[in-house]
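Reading a protein record of the kind used here takes little practice once its layout is understood. The fold follows as a row of integers, each naming the local backbone shape at the matching residue. With these conventions in mind, the following record can be read line by line:

_____
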Amino acid sequence: MPPAYAAPVRPFRARTAGQGRPAGGPRVLLPLLVLAAAVAQGFGRFGYALLLPAVNADLVHSYAVAGLLGTLNLGAYLAGTLLVSLTADRIAPAASVRTGLLLVTAGLAVLALAPSVAGLVVGMVVAGFGGALVWVPAPGIAGAAVRASRRGLAIGLAGSGVGVGVMASSALTALVHAVAGPGAWRPVWAIEAVLAALVAVAALGWLRPQAAPVSGPVRISALRAVPGWIGATLSYGGYGLAVAVYMTFVVAAYEHDAGFAPVHASAVFAVVGVCITAGGVLVGRWSDGVGRRAAMTWAYVGMAGAILLVPVGAEPWAVLSAAVFGLAMTGAPTVLAAHLADSLDPRRFAAAFGAVTLVFGLAQLVGPQLGGWIADRTGSFSTAFLVAAGAALAAAVASSTLPRRGAAARPRTSAPGGT
């Protein structure tokens, strides 16, 4: 039996158009969430991996310090996650997304203008904090906009924005390097700040807070209403460590260890972005059919295999690693989010997903610093990637404890007009 909790949370039932659904319907809402995720994650977080070698050579001069910058970004993301969880009963999910986009925009602008490492710290912290305000509530908003039978697909579509952002960052970095040389990094963040501002303006205009009040208190303990919440939470921690190492150091590993040219390494990273875009949609839709547990477990197994291919340092294994990792990277959290959304309304989802993300964030705090320390000590990134693969396998074991298909609560009503 699941653990007792103070206030029972009934399975989430999608609201009708007059009961607080975001304005514009899913055809407007989902593309906007895709762009918001691209800004929050692709620009504000994962884009740093592409610029890390240039930033390190120009301003930082230490992979350990460069890793610490990534850790600070993740620490700020963790703080933002905690804020979203604790204020879910007072701040509408859509309002959180809009505020987060403004903060990410400001962070990117500071990074582009940073005259020193201290400036980089400020920019990374602001961008990371804002990214959490965008991403934590976003899957719940997407899941609430469609009927239950397509919830995994909708959340996967929203998550595909991460891949869109990574692809855009990769293409932009390659273009800037072709024009200004491989050491250029400020123009990349400057252009991303402009793009982020445009998305923020669109969100201010079209992403409206829900009008309907929420009955009953909204607490982090809402997570305990979700079947298999312990295994889901632990799996997200292993996922966090694996992703932190891979996404922070994969480009540096291919350039430093394997001798890839910067253009080659960026192209491999772009493959990650392409497959990140598809992973949430494909794996999320797959989970609608085969069940959350099977889809999540196999996604983590695939992720572990992809990470183990990085130390090989040769083609076609680099591209294969990037493709499988990208699919799993958005596939696994999409299924996790769908598993939570099967039982929770959008505000309680934000509180519960924030609680799960706290464990994810704590693991990610360790990843960049640990990877950078290992690289400085051993002169190679191989050991760091072995640790990351072990974390992904641990996540697979934890997710295998989720209830079998059909055990989770599912809504009995569907939102009309869902996509």
